Amino acid sequence: MTILSRLLLILGSLLPLVQSQALPLHTSSRWILDANNTRVKLRCINWAGHMETHVPEGLHKQSIDFLADWIAQQGFNCVRLTYSIDHALNPDLKVCDAFAAAAAASGASRDALVGLYNQAVAKNPFLATATTRDVYGAVVDALWSRGVMTLLDNHVSRASWCCNLTDGNGWWDSAFGYNKWNSRFFHTQDWLSGLQAMAGWATSHGGVVAMSLRNEMREFLLQGLDGRQDWYDLVGRAGRAVHAANPDVLVVVGGTQSSTDLTHVRGRMLDTSGWPGKHVWEMHAYSFTVTFPNLLGSCDSVKLEYGAFAGFVLEQGEAYTAPLILSEFGVGMTGGSAGNQGLSDQDRNYLSCLAGYMEGNDAEWAVWALQGSYYVRDGTVDYDEGWGVLDHDWSGWRNPEFPSMLGAMWKVTQGP
Ligand SMILES: *[C@@H]1O[C@H](CO)[C@@H](O)[C@H](O)[C@H]1NC(C)=O
Ligand SMILES: *[C@@H]1O[C@H](CO)[C@@H](O)[C@H](O)[C@H]1NC(C)=O
Questions:
Q1: Distance in Å, CA 50 to ligand 2 centroid
Q2: Membrane-spanning regions, if any (predicted)?
Q3: Whose CA is nearest to atom 9 of ligand 1?
């Protein structure tokens, strides 16, 4: 055997064995279907990349191949990969420069960030010459070579931790009721340009099957009091722009109030004719989500709230009928006692109720989150993420009981 053929054999064993879905995906009623009209249920994990370094977290802890293997082996078939508009509009930034700039942007020490960068290069040598966009490409491709699809999520405009009502990323600057606290970074035109840029780029990375237009849109005081006209107008423009740049991707749209409230589409459907057969809704639900208070101390009442504010879009035969992805939910992974499967009482009650709701409707989901730590968050270097499913070293489950707590959410139990 020549050295070349040996090499080819080794390479061949690393290449995709099966591509599990026939792409592109499309929708029919409340279902996501592949190109063969087989139902695809998205079972995703969030992986943050929207913060100051402009690249997906954790590459100083593990190689991309290790992480892609781990994700695929746990049974996730999709990653909700977050990015900022700052990244979308600066694809050629070198990773080394991005880490140095992240120090200034976050207020952390430059030496500490350069140290992280050097660790990241040790784990992932291609970073030495890569741009931040190359890193997104490598992540998406590594996932897809294992059959794991990517949902690209525009999380923020300004690369930073998210989300509250004063972080400047909450609501469009061109919309009614501008105030700097909520809108100073959310430049409408940049947002549209950034979405288009990412959509166009994704045409050369087949694993990107969906794009969400904006994470957790959240109106401040008066901003939502115009009949949500701005939401209809701007979400519509973005959906059309993404579809024009990349007609293959699903277009994922969240409601207002931080992706918890779609009630307004009951009476007036969003015009989705610009992305036919591609529309998907998203919702978020945490134990602390104010839209879903557990006032009566009963799971049944919370399930009614989930349905009334967002889950109703799964009712078939309505103008608003479309698939729904619960694109963020999660619990503290280090909060509780062993008897509680490692959860606090509040998280345990919340998760068992939400999992029951999701088992009932068999909808798509994405847990928050993969990352066991952040390069830097709120100025703290190597910030521990207690909600990360991975431990601080990114080597395995932080709470090994967590996957079983999702019960039948892992299974496909319904279909067209
Ligand atoms: C899709 O259908 C074609 C034709 O029947 C078949 O060859 C192919 O294997 C199918 N792909 C998947 C992913 O099911
Ligand atoms: C809102 O978020 C920003 C960005 O993470 C943070 O700097 C700020 O302190 C937060 N504000 C409040 C009131 O928590």
A1: 16
A2: none
A3: 22
Pocket of ligand 1 (CB under 6 A): 21-22, 36
**52 CA from centroid of ligand 2 (Å):** 15
Q: Per residue in 287-345, pLDDT tens?
A: 999 999 998 889 999 999 999 999 999 999 999 999 999 999 999 998 666 677 888 88
pLDDT tens digits along 175-198: 999 999 999 999 999 999 999 999
- Find how far residue 175's CA is from the centre of its chain: 25
List of residues 6+ apart from 123 with CB closer than 8 A? 59, 60, 61, 62, 63
| Cβ atoms 265, 320 nearer than 8 A | yes
Question: Buried (b) or exposed (e) across 152-162, using 16+ Cβ within 10 A?
Answer: bbbbbbbbbbb
User: Which pair of structure tokens corresponds to residue 156?
Assistant: 């923020």
Q: What is the CB < 6 Å shell around ligand 2? A: 160-161, 164, 166-167, 378
Token pair in block for residue 335: 């909060």
CA 389 to CA 370: how far, in whole Å?
5
Given the CA of residue 21, which atom of ligand 1 is nearest to it? Answer: 13
Is the whole model's pTM more than 0.90, yes or no?
Answer: yes
Q: What's the average model confidence in pLDDT over 221-235?
A: 88
Closest atom, ligand 2, to C-alpha of 378? 5
Q: Which amino acid is at 301?
A: S
Work out the pLDDT band at 6, boundaries 50, 70, 90.
very low
CB 68 within 8 A of CB 148: yes
Give the mean pLDDT of 230-249: 98
φ, ψ dihedrals at 327, nearest 5°? -85, -5
Domains and CATH numbers, the chain: 27-410 (3.20.20.80)
